[in-house]
Write a structure and sequence with these properties.
Number of strands: 8
Helix content: 40-55%
Number of helices: 10
CATH class of the largest domain: Alpha Beta
Largest sheet: 5 strands, parallel
Distance between the termini: 34 Å
Mean pLDDT: 84
Structural class: alpha/beta
Order of helices and strands: EHEHEHEHEHHHHEHHEE
Low-confidence stretches: 153-159
CATH topology of the largest domain: Rossmann fold
Strand order of the largest sheet: 2-1-3-4-5
Strand content: 5-15%
CATH superfamily of the largest domain: Response regulator
Number of domains: 2
Radius of gyration: 19 Å
């Protein structure tokens, strides 16, 4: 037996599911419990394999991944199955429903192996914090509650967002910048994420302050240099 967290990969695309499985196996900190290509198969494998974490697509052939999430929560109230949503769905209502269902992360396709690895690393830190807390007192103080809530939300970045910035958009901007080969402008990131250039710049500047990105000016023939941003892995 292994004490590594067991992961169930759920995606209707066989090639994408195999790719995600490979990402998980390459990470080294997890064991793959199985792969499902439909909602019904996912629910069946959850019962059979009892995974700790589900990488859940939203677009499935027989039901929405949100329905799968809802049934997971209703079927096992005494046993917490953690979920990371991995999907191309960008609609606000879908994101809100996923967050209300208790997903630890909402990862928008397409993304790089590095981005998924960071989410898996966040999950391991979150899991370790829970295990440490379980080994201590059953009643938590405010500091312990705050750590548990912040752990799976992009580390310290999400816990210290300035007023007016959302965690969901922060994650989308961060992923978009991390996926770029080289630097990107606020205009490019805003177009990719679906926010204005001004809004994208606010999120990018916060990543700079957090030390996760740096400004990379591009000097043209005339006028002021264009501020571009480079992800620091």
């Amino acid at each position: 037996m292994t004490d590594r967290p067991r992961v169930l990969v759920v995606d209707d695309d066989f090639a994408v599911a195999a790719l995600h499985r490979g990402f998980v196996e390459f990470h080294g900190g997890f064991a793959v419990a199985g792969v499902a290509h439909s909602g019904a198969e996912a629910l069946r494998l959850v019962d059979e394999t009892e995974p700790d974490l589900v990488l859940l697509d939203v677009y499935l052939p027989d039901m929405s991944g949100l329905d799968v999430l809802q049934q997971l929560r209703a079927a096992s109230p005494g046993r917490q199955v953690d979920v990371i949503a991995i999907t191309a769905a960008r609609e606000l209502e879908t994101v809100r429903s996923a967050m209300a269902g208790g997903v630890l992360h909402y990862l928008v396709k397409p993304f790089t192996a590095q981005v998924l690895r960071e989410r898996l690393d966040d999950y391991l830190r979150h899991r370790a914090e829970i295990l440490r807390t379980e080994a201590r007192e059953t009643e938590l103080d405010q500091d312990q509650v705050d750590r548990l809530l912040a752990a799976p939300r992009l580390g310290n970045t999400a816990a210290t967002l300035p007023k007016g910035l959302s965690r969901t958009t922060m994650a989308a901007v961060r992923d978009a910048l991390a996926e770029h080969e080289g630097s990107a402008s606020a205009q490019e990131i805003g177009a990719q994420v679906g926010v204005s250039r001004v809004s994208a710049r606010r999120y990018l500047e916060h990543l700079v302050v957090e030390g996760r990105a740096r400004v990379a000016p591009r000097y043209g023939v005339t006028g002021r240099p264009e501020n571009r941003y480079l992800w620091l892995s």
